[in-house]
From TrEMBL:
This is FAD-dependent oxidoreductase. Residues 4-285 form the FAD/NAD(P)-binding domain. Keywords: FAD, Flavoprotein, Oxidoreductase. The keyword Flavoprotein applies. The keyword Flavoprotein applies. Its cofactor is FAD. Belongs to the NADH dehydrogenase family.
């Protein structure tokens, strides 16, 4: 008898699951991918799209097409709540989907935007369409000081500067810019300010109205539209499902990529989840990419085989796109800002996209 597996969100870990299934090594599994979009949009290339370097097709993977090769079913809906003990998922239109195993890889998607009581409605619009509308306005506001938020702010301001579009981009982050060491954070903030971006650090959006947001420190940040790139929020699906999450809305998973209390619920660590570091610290072994471990463990779980342990790889040297085809690369206490590093990042991003097409 076949088992039913639900994949919630078309994030990169789920692309790896579908690629593995398309190779034909999975047996007795009915897979459904539930997402408001049939595409995975690579956040690392959004800045290039904003500046006109890439087309929409260049920066995304057709997850529905990959799913078809895996013999699965695509359901274009917004998941709202999961009932773990009953093994049921409910979508925003009240349709119910039972499952034997479920996996979450939503990334920085509209599934996690604040909704009720915040003034921002959930949307199934692709990020690039939201960006197309915002970049023409005078004062777009980006919420989120991670890599995606910073790169989008740089690119959107560069787009405006290069076309003499009036106004400035605004960036609100709950931590320091890029949540990193002081020297790099300071340099990023300096580059953003020099480009023309206005930055609010260590503040969160408490009240969101049509033309402004009010921060937790009482600052009123006026804007002509909001793009939420802040990752998880307490209004997300885990909170709605009564699944314990931290103050940022992130749910902890074990090093097997499973929730501690529900072994049939998996999630990719990152924007929506965090690894249980205590249990992880007790394990030894070679590092593996979480996408590979999640795909392998879903397959093993369905066949009652022992699961692998996820051990993070050593962090790669990061390159942040700063607009106008320049990249900032960090080497410990030293950072280098030039066109060469943007070219390296461009090559890496395109190789990632091509690996799933």
């Amino acid at each position: 008898m076949s088992k039913r597996m639900l994949l919630i969100g078309s994030g990169p870990a789920h692309l790896e699951v579908l690629r593995s299934m398309a190779e034909g090594s999975w047996q007795g599994v009915d897979v459904c991918l539930i997402s408001p979009s049939s595409y995975y949009e690579h956040k690392g290339m959004l800045s290039g799209y904003i500046e006109g370097i890439y087309s929409a097709e260049d920066i995304r993977v057709n997850a529905e097409s990959l799913l078809a090769r895996a013999g699965g079913q695509f359901i274009k809906k917004i998941p709202s709540v999961v009932y773990p003990r009953q093994k049921k998922l409910v979508c925003s239109d009240d349709t119910v989907y039972p499952f034997d195993v479920i996996s979450f890889d939503m990334g920085e998607s509209s599934l996690l935007k604040p909704s009720e009581g915040t003034g921002i409605e959930r949307t199934a619009d692709p990020l690039y369409k939201q960006i197309d509308k915002l970049k023409q306005t005078n004062h777009p506001l980006i919420i989120g000081g991670g890599t995606s938020g910073i790169e989008v702010a740089f690119a959107m301001q560069s787009y405006k500067n290069n076309r003499n579009i009036p106004g400035d981009v605004r960036l609100l982050t709950s931590d320091k810019t890029w949540n990193t060491s002081s020297p790099l954070s300071n340099r990023l903030r300096s580059l953003l300010t020099k480009r023309g971006v206005r930055v609010w650090e260590n503040e969160t959006a408490d009240i969101i109205e049509d033309s402004f947001i009010l921060t937790n420190l009482g600052n009123k940040v006026r804007n002509t539209g909001v793009l939420w790139l802040g990752g998880a929020s307490k209004a997300g699906i885990f909170d709605a499902s009564g699944i314990a999450a931290d103050e940022e809305g992130r749910v902890l998973v074990q090093p097997t990529m499973q929730l501690k209390n529900f072994d049939y619920i998996f999630a990719a660590a990152g924007h929506v989840t965090g690894i249980d570091e205590f249990s992880h610290a007790k394990k030894k072994g070679s590092p593996r990419k979480q996408e590979t471990v999640l795909a392998e463990n879903l397959k093993r779980f369905l066949t009652d085989e022992p699961l692998e342990i996820y051990r993070p790889e050593k962090p790669n040297v990061s390159i942040i796109s700063t607009g106008n085809q320049k990249g900032l690369r960090n080497y410990g206490p030293v950072s280098i800002h030039n066109h060469r590093h943007w070219k390296i990042k461009n090559k890496q991003d395109q190789e990632f996209i091509h690996s799933y097409t």
